[in-house]
Amino acid sequence: MTGEQKSSTSAKILYRPVGLAGSVIGGLLAGIVFKQVWKHATPGDPTDPPTSLQSEYPLGQILLAAAVEGAIYSLIKASIDRGGARLFQRVTGEWPGD
User: Fold this and answer.
1) Is the Cβ–Cβ distance between 19 and 96 less than 8 Å?
2) N- to C-terminal Cα distance for the chain?
3) pTM of the entire structure?
4) Rounded Cα gap, residues 12 and 16, in angstroms
5) What single string gives the DSSP state of each residue in 52-86?
6) Cα separation of 65 and 78, whole Å?
7) What is the residue extent of each domain of the chain?
8) What b/e readout covers 16-43, taking b as 16+ CB neighbours within 10 angstroms?
9) Distance from the Cα of residue 51 to its chain's centroid
């Protein structure tokens, strides 16, 4: 890890609730962002994104929706995780990862 210090076991344990809260918030935020992106990206009457068990959608559209949703979720989760770790480091002086 470049430019960061090794974390202690206590820092990892103390960070767990912060990481868990960040994951929940990230998941909720990613769902909201994905629905807005899908609504603006699909032509015609905006509907909810297709799910894998909706037979009225072609497989390609379902796979595209899943890929976009996964990319948005990963981007938001990584951003929140990194920001939470940096904030934790500023407050405690220890990096919570590794």
Assistant:
1) yes
2) 8
3) 0.78
4) 6
5) TT-TTS-HHHHHHHHHHHHHHHHHHHHHHHHHHHH
6) 20
7) 9-92
8) eebbeebeeebeebbeeebeeebeeeee
9) 19
Tell me the average pLDDT across 20-30.
92
Per-residue pLDDT tens over the stretch 39-86: 888 877 667 888 899 999 899 989 999 999 999 999 999 999 999 999
Distances (CA, A) of 74 to 51, 54, 91: 19, 24, 26
Q: Own/partner pairs for 86-91, CB < 8 Å, 24+ apart? A: 88/11, 88/14, 88/15, 88/18, 89/4
Could you give the CA distance from residue 69 to residue 73 in angstroms, rounded to a whole number?
6
CA diameter of the chain: 54
**Between 10 and 34, where is the model more confident?**
34
